[in-house]
Amino acid sequence: MKKPAKILVASATDWPFPARLAGALIALDAKIETVCLRHSPLRQSGLSLGRHALSLLNPLNSLAHAITESGSELVIPCDDLMAEMLWLLGRTKPEFMPLIERSCGNPDAFAVRSSRSDFLREAAAAGVAIADTIALERASDLDRSIARFGLPLVIKADGSWGGDGVVIAENRATAETALTKFSRISRLRAIASAMKRRQPHLLLRAHFSIAPGPSAQRFVVGRPATSSIVCWGGKLLAANHFDVLVSNGTGPATVLEISHDPAMTEAAGRIAARFGLSGFYGLDYMRGQDGAALLLEINPRATPTAHLALGPDHDLAAALLTAAGHSVPDRPAVTRQSRIALFPQEWRRDPHSPHLDTAFHDLPQADQPLALALGWQVDALTSFSSSFPGLSGLKKAGGESGR
């Protein structure tokens, strides 16, 4: 009898998509265990998951314990912080490095992937079209950036995610303020921010060395685009590309449109080879007015669309399991529609969004407890959810948990 793949899904934030990715892997007969914080949606899921606690006081040891106890053959980081933690774990405890390299690819490339400016320089050398970027290492670099790129200017901070470390500066004063803010990141500021915003994962950030790396990027007029990719040993296995229709400002996308862009596939393949990638990654672009996509940055971990099955050769979870030696067929496409409203992102952004009626609404059909825990209100059933099996019977519970 074929043994199932044993995978550890690792999350250091309260993002919902790691639970969706776990569900996708379980649907492919993988055995999934998780390591996460107390309030993670992974703990609210109704799926059969092994669960390990990620300690705020001793995160690396708790991560090592979860890897050892789970006996996993792959670890999937689901946020930038967890990707950094895995890399640090491999450096401090070399016995874990073979697993981390198998899961995430060449560990020597992590430092370059973590620097927005260094990454883009390497991507350009690999033949990928990028948005011009200058590292802001000294005050004069800001003047040089404004002279070269003009205004508005995009100021970014390394070690940030979810749009928090991005400022679109319409003038010099705003650019200078952003540069000052991003250059003064410290453990004390991380702790203060965690307490103020009630986000425990920021306390984890304070455990590790915080090396500010602000950069300035040319502002590209156009529409954001994004790719979710999966790789193995530096080879691109599968990719799903999207144009972003709706997002939370500079933060994550909430409504996407499937894109079949050969140039984005070519770019993903070049980056996978250049950095020796394995596992899930995300690539963010800006599609200019000429239709060409310019690469902005890499997300060194799984992204919110990694769980989606979009037809033959577009099931990232199946591609990873097959490459790891557990041959599985691609799942049927979840939709034939080109537009996808991500749950709960678009629901939370606007419960009355027209996209919830016209796009495919990516409700967790196989995980009703997760849907309810994330705020889904059953008394708001519409055309996109009327077929949600059995959910109407949970109406009372749904109304209560949505608050």
Descriptive notes:
The chain is globular, with a radius of gyration of 21 Å. Strands 13-12-9-10-11-14-15 form a seven-stranded mixed sheet. It has about 400 residues and is of the alpha/beta class. Among the domains are: about 5-105, 3-Layer(aba) Sandwich (Rossmann fold), CATH 3.40.50.11190; about 130-220, ATP-grasp fold, A domain (Dna Ligase, domain 1), CATH 3.30.1490; about 340-400, no CATH class. It has 16 helices and 15 strands. It starts with 5 loop residues before the first strand and ends with a helix. Helix 3 runs antiparallel to helix 4 (about 95-105). The model is unreliable at about 380-385 and about 390-403 (pLDDT under 50).
Distance between the termini: 46 Å
| CATH architecture field of the domain at 6-104 | 3-Layer(aba) Sandwich
Q: Order of strands side by side in the largest beta sheet?
A: 13-12-9-10-11-14-15
Calculate the mean pLDDT score and round it: 88
How large is the share of residues in beta strands? 15-25%
How many helical elements?
A: 16
Low-pLDDT parts are: 381-387, 389-403
**Structural class by sheet pairing and helices:** alpha/beta
What's the helix and strand layout?
Blueprint: E1 6-10, H1 17-27, E2 31-36, E3 50-53, H2 59-70, E4 74-77, H3 80-92, H4 97-104, H5 110-114, H6 116-125, E5 133-135, H7 139-149, E6 153-156, E7 166-169, H8 172-183, H9 187-197, H10 201-205, E8 215-218, E9 222-232, E10 235-247, E11 253-259, H11 262-275, E12 279-288, E13 293-299, H12 316-323, E14 339-342, H13 345-349, H14 355-358, E15 360-362, H15 368-373, H16 395-401
Parallel strand pairs: 1-2, 1-4, 2-3, 14-15
Antiparallel strand pairs: 5-8, 6-7, 6-8, 9-10, 9-12, 10-11, 11-14, 12-13
